[in-house]
Amino acid sequence: MKKERILAGLTALTAAFSICCGCEKKNSSSTDGLSNYSLDVDGEKQPDPLAPLDDGSNNGSALQENNSTPAANSNNETESTTESTLKAGNFDAETTTKQQRDPLGEGEFKYDDNGAVLFNDSKEESDDDVKISAAQALFQSACRTEWAFKFGCPYQMDTSDVIKNEFGWEFAKITDPAITSIADVQRDYCRVFSERYVTGLTDVYKEKDGAVYALAPERGSNRYYSVSKITGIKATEGDEIVFNVENYYNGNDFDANKPYSETAEFSVVVSSDGKWRVGRFILPY
């Protein structure tokens, strides 16, 4: 692919994702559920990314150790899950579940093999602290999944076998024999995200002759991003729980030393199988 096509393609894709990569209900407006999303760079909201998620515990420390982005598919053998792992889109179910299984010291929930949150009993129905901790775990999984599927590719690809769209962007063939349609990709994506909130996959995956091709744009992440914290429960809407999330940044392109935070909504959909899957979500970086 020519250099100018790469630059033009990634610029257009970044613009498109800034509008649509936050998951929203099918056939709804792009602002559905996001009316409280705001940007504050005037110093009114100062970040506190090192504060624990609850009084005296280290629940937040796993998100605060490292904000760099390692190579995709690297193995995380450390004892704590860092933000770098979330950005890389890696998910080691056994290791990560061990790390996040017991954030409150009582073993109420854990990740399943794919990154959805599964409760061991019905305590989440009455304990807001448990809900907030579970939402924090699911938010981390949402970041991993969104990054892996939309800004990379979780499958093996043959980069010598490509197709192009109308803009000249090159899509490489996925060689995983289980992936023969975009519906297969959506199936895997919806192991973490609710089917109620699916958007953007057809922008980065294309079908041709019984095969699927992936764009895998691999854009850089926001270098100023620090950490995200679930700060409280906003509402319960049927089978959906809406949380407030605060995304913290150490600066911006105009002032690299001026920290600020953005407030957004994050929701979970309680599936019929009892698992929590991602609803409303905006990738914070």
Structure write-up:
The chain is an alpha+beta fold and 285 residues long. 24% of the residues lie in helices and 24% in strands. The chain has 6 helices and 11 strands. The chain has helices spanning 3-20, 83-88, 93-100, 128-150, 182-189, 201-204; strands at 38-40, 109-111, 117-119, 157-164, 170-174, 205-208, 211-214, 225-237, 240-249, 260-270, 276-278. The strands form 3 sheets. Strands 1, 8, 9, 10 and 11 form a 5-stranded antiparallel sheet that branches. A 4-stranded antiparallel sheet has the order 4-5-7-6. The chain has a two-stranded antiparallel ribbon with strand order 2-3. A hairpin with a 2-residue loop joins strand 6 and strand 7. The longest helix has 23 residues, at 128-150. The radius of gyration is 19 Å and the shape is globular. It starts with a helix and ends in a 7-residue tail after the last strand. The model is unreliable at 1-44 and 52-105 (pLDDT under 50).
Quick check: average pLDDT? 72
Report the strand count: 11
| Helix and strand run | HEHHEEHEEHHEEEEEE
The chain-level structural class is alpha+beta
Instruction: Give a short account of the largest sheet.
Output: 5 strands, antiparallel
Helix content: 10-25%
Q: How many helices?
A: 6
Oligomeric nature of the chains: single chain
- The gross shape turns out to be globular
> In what range is the share of β-strand residues?
15-25%
Determine Rg (CA atoms, Å). 19 Å
First-residue to last-residue Cα separation: 26 Å
As residue ranges, the low-confidence spans are 1-44, 52-105
